[in-house]
From TrEMBL:
MF terms in GO: NAD binding; oxidoreductase activity, acting on the CH-CH group of donors, NAD or NADP as acceptor; oxidoreductase activity, acting on the CH-OH group of donors, NAD or NADP as acceptor
NAD as UniProt keyword: yes
Family matches, as InterPro entries: 6-PGluconate_DH-like_C_sf, NAD(P)-bd_dom_sf, UDP-Glc/GDP-Man, UDP-Glc/GDP-Man_DH_C, UDP-Glc/GDP-Man_DH_C_sf, UDP-Glc/GDP-Man_DH_dimer, UDP-Glc/GDP-Man_DH_N, UDP_ManNAc/GlcNAc_DH
Biological processes annotated in GO: polysaccharide biosynthetic process
Keyword Amino-acid biosynthesis attributed: no
Protein name in UniProt: Nucleotide sugar dehydrogenase
Domain UDP-glucose/GDP-mannose dehydrogenase C-terminal: 353-446
Keywords: NAD, Oxidoreductase
Amino acid sequence: MAEHALALAINGREHQFHDKLVAYSSTATSGQYSSEVETVAVVGLGYVGLPTASALCHGDVRVTGLDVSEDRLAAIKRGDVDLPEDEQAGLAAAIADGNLLLTEDASVLDESDAVVLCVPTPVDEEHAPDLTALSRACATVVAHVRPGQTIILTSTSFVGTTRRLLIEPLEQQGLTIGTDVHIAFSPERIDPGNPDHQHSRTPRIVGGVTRACAVRAASVIENMTDSVYLVGSPEAAELTKLYENIFRAVTLALANEFSDICAHFDLDPIEVTVAAGTKPYGFLGGFPGPGVGGHCIPCDPHYLLWQLRQHDHTAPLIEQTMRSIELRPERVVDRAVQMLGEAGVEPSGARVLLVGVSYKAGVRDLRESPALPILSGLARRGVRVAYHDPLMPQIRLPDGTSLSSEQTPEAEQCDLVVIHTVHPEIDYSWVRDCAQVLDATYRFDIAPHRQVV
């Protein structure tokens, strides 16, 4: 078990809480609740499931990847997936060696010792949880359950999801949890595009229904990481994941708000944030940007807010945080229009190019990207919008408008360039020739004349 430093802003006394952590050790539990896990099925091969399946292949198990999409399976087989280069090579080798089998046939679940569910959990237009895909996946797993199996849910959801979709249906079939079948929740901790946060170096949390459930699930999860910690229930693990992402949401909302405060004082928010970050206790900062995108931060807090509303409970800080995050792209639109006006250019008919549209540098992922409301907001003001992103050849705006990435942008044809996402190893030197540059990342030093939001 690798030693892991707690990331707590409690004045440097984190060491006092290490005894609160229950670390899983395969040697310490040898012979207790032991069960040989030779085959693992990963249900869902998306942004979480595929890296999970690939990471499991490094352990001493045979892995089967199950997905309902033939197109997704075909894309994985030909290597058309959004993974770092080294992980793509490992994935290709696992498929070629037969260590990872790909299928859409759910009958593979019948022969699997363990099942890991990695199904997306988005929110709908009203910010209510959309468990359509997860409910179907859990129902499929329940239909194919066999005695002795270990079932692990990793998808982020509201507290009680594991109990509602797995534990209760299995008990209704007459199975005893912890004896006949073992159930746990172990939230995914995927950080797309960040090579520093690999599976093997990222600790995982496991919450089992019983001690036996937790130990069996941890024995599966330890194939991916050096550190596994146990909490007392699936519900505790579910709320842990929500807390992690809500904390990040609050931090980012505060960073964006502080950038506006810095603008009032004509100060650089990056300089102020980095300076504050030199304090070794009591500060965990973030950097401002054009908004917050991806599968986690803009969505997951709404799962808790939705659940709390069902019980007439409020969480004002979280509610305001999510409202602030939702409004951030419009702040970028207002600043872009302001810059056009200051340059004597009417927004109606002006040409604005957005640099980068994926929600995060280095990933081909448009989910919840602030780029979409920014482009839509500019278009509503009469602006002629375009974008440049080699990782995203085509996109569709919320109103159905389709746009294609400009492969060779011409600086002189742009009234304004907005820097949204800067991908690594891409040449952006042409931006220097653009008359007006709005840097929504606050870190685009290639154009010295840039202005920030």
